[in-house]
Amino acid sequence: MKTLRLTAIGNSTGVVFPKEILARLRVEKGDTLYVLETRGGIELTPYDPEFAKQMEMAEEIMREERDVLRKLSE
User: Fold this and answer.
1) At 53, is the pLDDT very low, low, confident or very high (cuts 50, 70, 90)?
2) What DSSP character marks residue 69?
3) Which of 16, 49, 68, 69 has CA atoms 20 to 30 A from the CA of 8?
4) How far, in Å, CA of 49 to CA of 34, rounded?
5) 3 near 16, Cβ under 8 Å?
6) Contact assessment for residue 2 and residue 21, using Cβ atoms and an 8 Å cutoff
């Protein structure tokens, strides 16, 4: 288990992540993290959950309408 210390950044409060945590999240300075509330607490993720949901819907439509899409591409 890692612990992170909150620190003052101007008028805000921030957290400094160790390099190994940034590597595991596959993020670097300037990237965006999304904060999700889950049953188990707070989850930080670099993946936009709304975009992921939209992609799942698009993939479902593409599977269901594969023949129509194939015809349109000709």
Assistant:
1) confident
2) H
3) 49
4) 8
5) no
6) yes
Exposure of 68 in the CB half-sphere (CA atoms within 13 A): 5
DSSP secondary structure code for residue 7 in this structure:
E
Give the DSSP letter string of 12-68: EEEEPPPHHHHHHHT--TT---EEEEETTEEEEESS-HHHHHHHHHHHHHHHHTHHH
| Rounded Cα distance, 69 and 37, in Å | 37
Q: 3-17: per-residue pLDDT in tens?
A: 899 999 999 999 999
User: How many residues appear in the chain?
Assistant: 74
Which helix or strand (DSSP H or E) is residue 72 part of? Answer: helix 66-73
